[in-house]
Every structure is written in C-alpha cells, then in structure tokens.
Write a structure and sequence with these properties.
Layout: E1 4-8, E2 14-18, E3 23-24, H1 31-41, H2 45-50, E4 55-60, H3 66-78, E5 82-88, H4 94-100, H5 110-120, E6 126-133, E7 136-142, H6 145-148, E8 157-162, H7 176-184, E9 186-194, H8 199-207, E10 211-216, E11 223-228
Parallel strand pairs: 4-5, 4-8, 5-7, 8-9
Antiparallel strand pairs: 1-2, 2-3, 6-7, 9-11, 10-11
C-alpha cells in the first residue's frame, strides 16, 4: 500500500497526504495556488524566468512534483533555461503522479506524462537526471537529504524552495546544520522561500546570514517566509 493519499484542495488542484507523517504536502486552500505564490513568486523564480534569465533552483522535498512542473511550465513558456535540483527520500510513484492530474492547469500539459514516464524508469536511490528539452533539466538526489545536501555545489543556486514536512515531524531537515548546507549552496543574492515561519527556523536562517522576513500567507495560512542571501555573503 502506498503511504500517499490523494486529496483535493480548495482551488480544485490535488495534493498528497502522507500516512507516515499525517500531514499534507500543501495547504488545503490550494496546492497550485500555494506553490505558485510561495515557491515560484516569493523566491523570484517567476520574475527571473519571465525576464529570460537562466535559473538554477534547489528544492528540499520534491513531494508531488508540482514545484518542478510549474517551474518547468513557466520556463518553457518564457523560453528560459531552467536547471532544477531536488532532494527527496521517498519519490512518489508514477500512477500517483498521474492521479494528481496537474496537467489540467499546465500550459504544457505534456510535462506531467513526461515526468511520470521518467519516474517509472528511475531508481529509488542515487542520483537521476531528466532532460526534457535542451535547456530544461531536472536532477533528483534520492536518499537521506542530510547526506545528499553535502553533494551540492556551493554557491550555485539562484533560489530555494524549502519545502520538507514541518519541523514537528521532520525536524532533521530544519536544524541549523542542515540549513547551513542549504545556504552554502545558494549564490549571493539568492532567495529562499518556505511556508514555515516558526521562530526557531527564522532565527537559524538569520544566524546563517540570511535576511529573513515574513510575508502575507495564502488562505488560512496567515504568514509565510522569504529570505535573501546578501550579495556580500562569504558563506
């Protein structure tokens, strides 16, 4: 039995509930709306891609694959290059991805089936790379994120979608040590965005040199987090 349950959210898009963690991958207010706002817009990825800028994105928690699908959809629409790297321990299976039905609100619906077909051929551990177009690539680091994050090149990403399950159930991915490895992978000026605004998380990111602020949330979520790595950062 899969440990994922498919649930519909208020904007008609679907998300997954983990039986293991008893949490959903997205807000009940809308999986698509939340991902577009928190991940793509607050991180600056939408603006970069629409301006035609080549962009490298790091995602912590591939989850439903929606972060990549929406980012890839934007990149194809803008004709911009996108290099997307994600850390994930439990890659969802292809039938579950298809059941989510994300193609319904993509400008390039073929992305969903291309991703599902690739997942069917992807091993459950190690590193896998998917190039759907000459300037559009997805690389998955599958396994324990605490180990895999150390394999990332330093100062190489323009944005980070920080999206593991909450610190209450996935605390190992919110420690200062782990976040420090994430910050080290960001270029000066890079943006990090997350649904999580817990005080302890904000203080850790600040201690790592990021400029952290809270932004208005979406639906029942009052606030979300965005942080910038200073241009003069030495980490």
């Amino acid at each position: 039995m899969s440990h994922w349950l498919v649930e519909e959210t208020s904007d008609g898009s679907r998300t997954l509930r983990s039986r293991r963690f008893a949490q959903c991958c997205h807000s009940s207010s809308g999986a698509r709306a939340e991902t577009l706002y928190v991940s793509l817009e607050l991180s600056g990825v939408c603006a970069r891609l629409r301006a035609g800028a080549a962009t490298r994105v790091l995602e912590i928690g591939f989850g439903t694959g929606l972060g990549w699908l929406l980012s890839a959809d934007e990149a194809l629409s803008a004709g911009a290059a996108l290099e997307f790297v994600a850390l994930e321990r439990d890659l969802l299976d292809a039938p579950t991805l298809r059941e989510l039905g994300s193609a319904a609100y993509l400008r390039h619906p073929e992305l969903e089936e291309a991703l599902a077909s690739w997942i069917e051929r992807t091993p459950s551990m190690g590193t896998a790379r998917f190039e759907i177009a000459p300037r559009l690539a997805l690389e998955l680091f599958l396994g324990d994120a605490r180990e895999r994050v150390r394999e990332l090149p330093r100062a190489s990403f323009d944005a980070c979608y920080l999206d593991p399950f909450s610190p209450d159930v996935n605390s190992e991915l919110w420690t200062e040590e782990f976040l420090g490895d994430v910050v080290a992978a960001l270029r000066p000026g890079a943006m990090l965005s997350s649904y999580c605004v817990q005080g302890a998380v904000r203080r850790r990111l600040q201690a790592l040199g990021l400029r952290v602020e809270k932004c208005p949330g979406l639906g029942k979520k009052r606030e979300v987090l965005v942080a910038r790595k200073p241009m003069d950062a030495s980490r």
